[in-house]
Amino acid sequence: MHFTEKEMVFSNIILAWYGTNKRALPWRNTLDPYRIWLSEIMLQQTRVAQGTPYYHKFISAFPKVEDLANADEEVVLKLWQGLGYYSRARNLHATAKIVVEKYGGTFPNTYKELLTLKGVGDYTASAIASICFNEAVPVVDGNVYRVLSRYYGIDLPINSPEGIKEFKKLAVKAMAPKNIRDYNQGIMEFGALQCTPQKPDCQTCPLNSGCIAYNNDRIGSLPVKLKKAKVKHRYFNYLVVVDANNQTLVQQRTGNGIWQQLYEFPLLESDREVALTEVSKSAPEILGVKEDAEVYLFNDKNIVHKLSHQHLHTKFWIVSTTTILENGVPLSTLPEYPVPVLIADFINTFKI
What we know:
It comes from Arenibacter nanhaiticus. Keywords: 4Fe-4S, DNA damage, DNA repair, Glycosidase, Hydrolase, Iron, Iron-sulfur, Metal-binding. It is an enzyme of class 3 (hydrolase). Residues 42-193 form the HhH-GPD domain. α2 (33-42) packs across α3 (48-61), α8 (122-133) packs across α11 and α9 crosses α11 (180-193). It contains 14 helices and nine strands. The longest helix is centred in the N-terminal third of the chain and has 17 residues, at 87-103. It starts with 9 loop residues before the first helix and ends with a helix. By secondary structure, the chain is an alpha+beta fold. It is elongated and about 75 Å long. The protein has helices at 10-21, 33-42, 48-61, 65-69, 73-80, 87-103, 111-114, 122-133, 142-152, 161-174, 180-193, 212-215, 276-287, 341-349; strands at residues 232-242, 247-248, 251-252, 263-264, 267-270, 294-297, 303-306, 310-320, 329-330. The relative contact order is 0.11.
């Protein structure tokens, strides 16, 4: 059905569209704040199709927030493996502990209190407060930015301080406070399915008569986003040592960089690609093995692993040694460790 601006206001059009087009997603069958919070954290930086199996895995492993709070961090990270942005998993675990210890296992029921939880920002607090507790606060995510920017013809950058402030104000004006639960889910769904980033189907869009971008041929130029920071290139050389007992070495990443608390092989990082001679020279000292260790390259071409602001040019070097590793772990146990997907892929293909 085609709606005109005169017949129905923006929020009512969104609600009507949502009633007809919403997807059957597992977290839409509940108002449990634990499950809504879990889904929202997972879907940050992640597509629904990718996130859904992880949601099922977590609900199966941790049916209640108490189960997640009491879990070992390595178990949480292992289940998260492949979703990326691992700080989300660590914050998830920390917040579960806070909800149990401070709130007795019951999530705060207001936007303001939800904001105090670790890893919960404006968007997530708004989503939980509106969906679970029907609080009249609008959500503003990438989908919402796109719909509002195009419909109202706003060219303020969505990732600028001014843009963030202006779009939040606009979201408040546009929302349907009496049915905020469905409206918030509806406008996000509308952006995901109808007002898509590339080649949206504007001909069948129920908002097209009032859409400034559509009526002024500006769909392709909105929303506006400031350019990202320059991509940093890093060169990772993983030293996969194998001793006579089929043991290897792994270490846990610490500090504030990428992949905190995940495991990896001993790493030789360089500012450029390195040759076999350089690795052969450095490996014995780094690994604590004999000088006659045999080194060979596992992957002939660099594996380029792309993160948001950096590209990791990665090579895996196999170091075969007669030295029995003091802190070695059996190669057969490698799949049990929570590791970045880059290393998980290597483990899956590496055969002794």
